[in-house]
Write a structure and sequence with these properties.
Radius of gyration: 21 Å
Oligomer: single chain
Protein name: Aminotransferase
Enzyme class: transferase
Cofactor: pyridoxal 5'-phosphate
GO cellular component, one term: cytosol
Structural class: alpha/beta
Bound molecules: 4'-deoxy-4'-aminopyridoxal-5'-phosphate
Subunit structure: Homodimer.
Order of helices and strands: HEHHHEHEHEEEHEHEHHEEHHHHEHEEH
């Protein structure tokens, strides 16, 4: 008699199941625009030259692999602060930020969620509607009640900022507000600087706890530009949680490299917070993995490799923008003024919310082998000069 008869089958992650169907699909013209990975023009995951050089260096200088400290590598943590907050930033120089290295951005969210649950047990968490599904899973898994704040207006395909602001303004003090720093997943719609300028004082004055998720630094407009909102929050006096990930911008998904930073009022508080973040890590997975952080540290430490990384990131960003422009042009050439695809150009980062219905997404997949997520989210980096017209034609057939 099995002990586990009450354990239900796992329905699987919808996006990963879609990848499996894609791999089984025998049609040579098939196009995957579902999973959130950056692919190059040839449809491959890139190995960045800076990362290759770092890997070669580490391979030639193999070190014993002891445990890292609970909080991760010290140099890596300092380099992360420079990258996220800006090297000369007052909060960095003052030593009032507690940063721990985590297994990817997901690990950062989980450590942050557990820490908040322990020290702010009554807090509830407010997350954009829609959001990356795992936000809900991670915060609910940490024992929180989660709620959505208005973000995307499906009828117009635009950000509903006024309703977002009104909702956030009405939250009880001490509520956690999860914000995407840039390149919002799944909509591709970000707040303008002016909108951040209206939101940030509300967060500070209402005594809310901002938790910024920055999974795509460098994919929108640039490393500093994409971190602008994080820095504006800190400049306004916010005490904030910031999760950042190197999965996408270093193309190091499987190494699990990221970090969590908590901005405090002063260095002594940051020391206490760091100590309790270490305790949170200890209770979860004891200490982070070494290799990915060593790679990132090696690149960020070397001015030449860091410049090469920045240039590669600029190329990735430019390729995504080029694909946005090409898809827009192909659709506009057909529809003219009958249908507006301007959102393809104004959205930021890897994802675009197309406004296609679930039935239209099914049609694209079944009739044309073009795979999108059922919400209509399209991963722009699955496009290439070779397939963009094919995808445009498929969309045209489905919409006409
Ligand atoms: N936040 C968002 C918004 C994401 O899209 C992702 C990755 N899909 C993550 C966090 C997690 O990143 P990681 O793979 O580094 O755990």
């Amino acid at each position: 008699m099995s002990l586990f008869t009450h354990v239900p089958a796992y329905p699987g992650d919808p996006i990963l199941s879609l990848m499996e169907s894609f791999q089984r699909d025998a049609r040579p013209e098939k196009v995957s625009l579902s999973i959130g990975l950056y692919f190059d023009e040839a449809g491959r995951l890139p190995v960045l030259d800076s990362v290759r050089q770092a890997a070669q260096f580490l391979a030639a200088n193999v070190e014993p692999c002891g445990y890292l400290p609970m909080e991760g590598l010290a140099t890596y943590r300092q380099l992360v602060q420079n990258l996220v907050f800006g090297a000369g930033h007052e909060a960095v120089r003052a030593g009032r930020i507690a940063t721990v290295q985590t297994p990817g951005g997901s690990g950062a969210l989980k450590v942050g969620a557990d820490f908040i649950k322990r020290y702010f047990p009554q807090a509830e968490v407010w997350i954009s509607d829609p959001t990356w599904d795992n936000h809900l899973a991670i915060f609910e898994g940490a024992g929180f009640r989660t709620h959505g704040y208005p973000y995307y207006d499906a009828s117009s395909g635009t950000l509903c900022f006024d309703r977002m602001l009104e909702t956030i303004r009405g939250l009880p003090s001490g509520s956690v507000v999860l914000l995407h720093a840039s390149c919002h997943n799944p909509t591709g719609l970000d707040l303008s600087r002016q909108q951040w300028g209206a939101l940030i004082p509300v967060i500070v004055e209402r005594g809310l706890i901002p938790f910024v998720d920055m999974a795509y630094q460098g994919f929108g407009d640039g490393l500093d530009e994409d971190a602008w909102a994080v820095r504006a929050l800190v400049d306004a006096g916010a005490q904030a949680f910031v999760a950042n990930s190197f999965s996408k911008n270093f193309s190091l998904y499987g190494e699990r490299v990221g970090s969590l930073s908590v901005v405090c009022t002063d260095p002594a508080t940051a020391d206490n917070v760091l100590g309790q973040l270490k305790a949170t890590v200890r209770r979860n997975y004891s200490s982070p993995p070494a290799q990915g952080a060593r790679l990132v540290q090696h690149v960020l430490q070397s001015p030449e490799l860091a410049a090469s990384w920045d240039a590669d990131l600029a190329d990735m960003r430019a390729r995504i923008k080029d694909m946005r422009a090409r898809l827009h042009q192909a659709l506009h050439a057909h529809f003219g003024e009958r249908r507006d695809f301007g959102f393809l150009l104004s959205q930021r980062g890897m994802f675009s919310y197309t406004g296609l219905t679930e039935a239209q997404v099914d049609g694209l997949r079944e009739q044309h082998g073009v795979y999108l997520v059922k919400s209509g989210r399209m991963c722009m980096s699955g496009l290439s000069r070779d397939n963009v017209q094919y995808v445009a034609d498929a969309i045209i057939t489905i919409l006409e």
